[in-house]
Amino acid sequence: MIVGTGVDIVEVSRVRSLVVRYGKRFTGRWFDALEIEYCSRKTRPEEHFAARLAAKEACFKALRLDGNAPLCWKDIVVITSSEGAPALLVRSTALKAAEQLNINSFHLSLSHCGAYAIAMVTAEGSGRAGCTIQSKDFLDEPAME
């Protein structure tokens, strides 16, 4: 059963200017070390950072959190599933929110072009208590688009 959905679009130029202006201060606040390492290897890292930023916001919306909910953005991480597709790893406050909604999986779609990055997240719940979405199997490397 679908418990929540979220979509977000981010201007790549905005992310580029934040990376240029604040550097590691910006990336370290918003992204996990795996995400930073993955994006930094790319020719246009700002597109990949923008896609991940959109994914974090889309997940926030799928979790149906209000703007006052305490959340560390590094608790939502874009990773690579065992099938090679982008996936979400949630932990800490994001994991607690997912557990409260009985969410047991997220589905993530990412896309980006020169100007924009977009992410769509669908949260599914099984109706069972608990949450099985934090899996060490997915921690090999960040998602590739």
Task: Explain what this protein looks like in three dimensions.
- The chain starts with a strand and ends in a 20-residue tail after the last strand.
- It is α+β, with helices and mostly antiparallel strands.
- The chain has a single domain, classed as Ribosomal Protein L22, Chain A, CATH 3.90.470.
- It is 37% helix and 28% strand.
- It has a three-stranded antiparallel β-sheet with strand order 1-5-4. Strands 2-3 form a two-stranded antiparallel ribbon.
- It has helices at residues 12-22, 24-30, 33-40, 45-62, 92-100; strands spanning 2-11, 76-80, 86-90, 103-112, 116-125.
Q: Which labels suit this protein?
A:
Ribosomal Protein L22, Chain A, 37% helix, 145 residues, two-stranded antiparallel ribbon, alpha+beta, 5 helices
Quick structural gist:
This protein has 145 residues and is α+β, with helices and mostly antiparallel strands. It has helices spanning 12-22, 24-30, 33-40, 45-62, 92-100, and strands at 2-11, 76-80, 86-90, 103-112, 116-125. The protein has one domain (2-138): 4'-phosphopantetheinyl transferase domain (Ribosomal Protein L22, Chain A).
Structural class: alpha+beta
Largest sheet: 3 strands, antiparallel
CATH architecture: Alpha-Beta Complex
Q: The CATH topology, please?
A: Ribosomal Protein L22, Chain A
Shape: globular
Percent helix, as a range, is: 25-40%
Quaternary status of these chains?
single chain
β-strand percent reads 25-35%
What CATH first level would be assigned? Alpha Beta
What strand line-up does the widest sheet have? 1-5-4
> Rg from C-alpha positions?
14 Å
Average predicted local confidence, pLDDT? 86
Low-confidence stretches: 127-140
